[in-house]
Write a structure and sequence with these properties.
- This protein is an alpha/beta fold.
- It is 39% helix and 20% strand.
- A 10-stranded mixed sheet has the order 2-1-3-12-11-4-5-10-8-9, with helices on both faces. The protein has a two-stranded antiparallel sheet with strand order 6-7.
- α1 crosses α9.
- The structure holds 3-isopropylmalic acid and manganese (II) ion.
- The site of 3-isopropylmalic acid has 4 residues, from α4.
Amino acid sequence: MSESSGEQLRVAVVGGDGIGPEVIEQGLRVIEAAGVSLETEHYDLGGSRYLRDGTILPDEVLAEWRDVHAIYLGAVGTPDVPPGVIERGLLLKMRFELDLYVNQRPFKLAAAGGGSANEADGVPGHDFVVIRENTEGTYAGEGGFLRKGTPHEIATQGSVNTRMGAERCIRYAYDLATRRNDHLTLVHKTNVLTFSGDLWDRTFTEVGGEYPGVDTAYNHVDAACIYFVQDPQRYDVIVTDNLFGDILTDLGGAVSGGIGLASSANLNPDRTGPSMFEPVHGSAPDIAGQNKANPIAAILSGALMLDFLGQGEAARRIEAACDACAELDGSTVEVADAVMAKL
Ligand code: IPM
Ligand code: MN
């Protein structure tokens, strides 16, 4: 749905598997406490549902979602389902079918000596954001087997890169850079991926011609991994392909307070359908149902959702409250209570 101004916001909620439902429940409590009323409909989808009756993501559900403003998702996947079934059948299907071509993943480094990311205390805090292409690359599903199960087996898994796909994602990143600090870094592996890397690099340079005020940089992805650990302050906005973005954003979470804080927005920037908001972390079945999971990543994903739906003021308040609670050690409910108390 494209327009949200003034009308009742309708959100499809997929708690999913493992810790997904418990962190999303807290996210919804915080949104309500921030004064935003959502009309929610809960969908029982994920690995557990699949094991019960074989349902993954029916077309009727996708059709219903065309009429909501956003989808708020916890985590999907259980160890009892073979890898790929739920990931491809549910999560990636959503990204592809709803054309969620930008995966926006923000990170905040705390100031040295504690305190919020904005506090100048010794080494000041710093925040940066990764824009991950979300519909192409190795995720597109190109490839297959030949002679499967024989000694002469062949498996290929291609990387699909279209000019249109790279360009719309890169353009989104430039636009974001102009709203932030006019700095954008392309991360790829142009020294080895001489076809896809060349397409990305040329597109990055050509689109950059339209943004003369944005300073640009380029890093190979392996070097970017070092900089994420040793010098993340060099980054403001990063744009990269699907697989590099997947790996780099787990690392981003690890260097900025842990994956329990990492939020993400799967965006359809053209608003031809709903966007989807989910924590970067997975379903963590080992701690599911124990009130142990950190709900901050889910709460911050809820803030990204509110921001995208035109509720920027509530989003800012939730983010500030989460910053103040980022180092809190408590149960799922306790951490959410603390965030609500700071609103
Ligand atoms: C993520 C996840 C997914 C991905 C998996 C679950 C398919 O790791 O959102 O980062 O690889 O994109
Ligand atoms: Mn990932």
